[in-house]
Amino acid sequence: MNPEGHPGSCSIVGDAINYTQDTLSTEELQSLATDEDFLEKLNQLSWYFPRNWPGEEAECEDLRTQETPRAVEDTESHQQEQEYRERFLKEFPQVKKELEEHITQLRALADKAEKLHKDCAFYKLVASSTSIVSDILTIAGMGLAPVTAGVSLGLTVTGLGLGAASAVTDVATSIMEHASMAAIKVDANKLTSTGVNPEEAFKVVVCDCAPKIVPLGRNVIRRVEGIKKNLQAIKLVNANPLLEARVIRFLKTGRISTRNARRVQKAFGGTALAMSKGARLAGMATAGLFLLADVYSLVKQSVHLQAGAQPASASRLREQASELEMKLENLKEIHASLLED
Fold first, then answer.
1. Are 1 and 57 in contact (CB under 8 A)?
2. Cα-based distances in Å from 102 to 98, 182, 328
């Protein structure tokens, strides 16, 4: 409605005139200009058509101002970017400080987790060593039963005591490590905002440790009862040398009267002195299997310590610290570029 070359013209008559000028030659236009009938009809048409049809004026106005909304939008976008820039520059120092503190704390937690794991690995190594000594003493006590009752009982008591101590140390170390690692994990999650529930973390500790506690209790109770029986047997042997001689004869030859066999069973029941040869050999074989398992555990713990005893939790904490450090470096680059602008 606004032909090029005629700005401001929005009437139908004006458009008709413009179209006529563009399509007719100069000679044809001069001929029409001198034609009185044509001029009269053109004049009559101008009375029937208004200068602007309804909405035509608004359309022309829209054409003149069609670039205005985009200009307003660009202005608002620029203002918003400026606000974001100023806000970033204002808050960056505090964010930088907090991220640096979190990185330092995560690495400190990683060092703590690594030290804790190494200490626990060392305690488990000691427990394995103690258990090996316990197995050896148990085997020796059963083997010496036919030779000397007193020494056999003494070795058995020592072996049972060391075995109980080893079992308690191993399980207690596992519980301590699990609980401490759970606490470290909760502290780390506070720094990285992963929202781990402390109660849930410690429930996991209980679930992991519970299967070890029940067998531990049974093992310790069994060993304590064995220690009591062997101590009572030692007292009887020391107080009654004749009874000791009968026991040794029974263990060597396997022949003893029914009456004396009942006395031996009543006095030394639950100890190596009341066992038959087959039972002692079976007990020694079982102790030998435990000895092999403890040696394997000892070797495994030694290799782990020599390799540095790096726990997975410590590695993960250091990875989280590195991730935060990368984010901080990106923020520093953005800050520097904004300052340059």
1. no
2. 6, 18, 11
Q: Three-state SS across 164-185?
A: HHHHHHHHHHHHHHHHHHHHHH
Distance CA 306, CA 121 (A): 11
- How far is the CA of 175 from the CAs of 12, 70, 114, 162, 244, in angstroms? 95, 67, 16, 20, 44
Contact 138, 106 (CB under 8 A): no
Closest Cα partner for 180 from 311, 320, 322? 311
pLDDT tens sequence across 231-278: 888 888 888 877 777 777 777 776 666 676 677 777 777 788 878 778
Cα gap 23→29, rounded to integer Å: 10
Does 60 have pLDDT greater than 50? no
- Contact at 8 Å (CB) between 215 and 141? no
Angle between helices 26-33 and 12-23 in degrees, nearest 10 = 130
Spatial separation of the C-alpha atoms in residues 132 and 155, rounded to whole Å: 14
What are the C-alpha distances in Å from 46 to residues 6, 19, 285? 19, 16, 126
Structure tokens at 286: 């079982």
Q: Where are the alpha helices (DSSP H) in the chain?
A: 12-23, 26-33, 36-48, 56-65, 68-143, 149-192, 198-239, 241-253, 258-268, 277-306, 312-340
Supply φ then ψ for residue 270, to 5 degrees.
90, 0
Q: What is the pLDDT of residue 1?
A: 42
Please state the pTM of the whole predicted model.
0.62
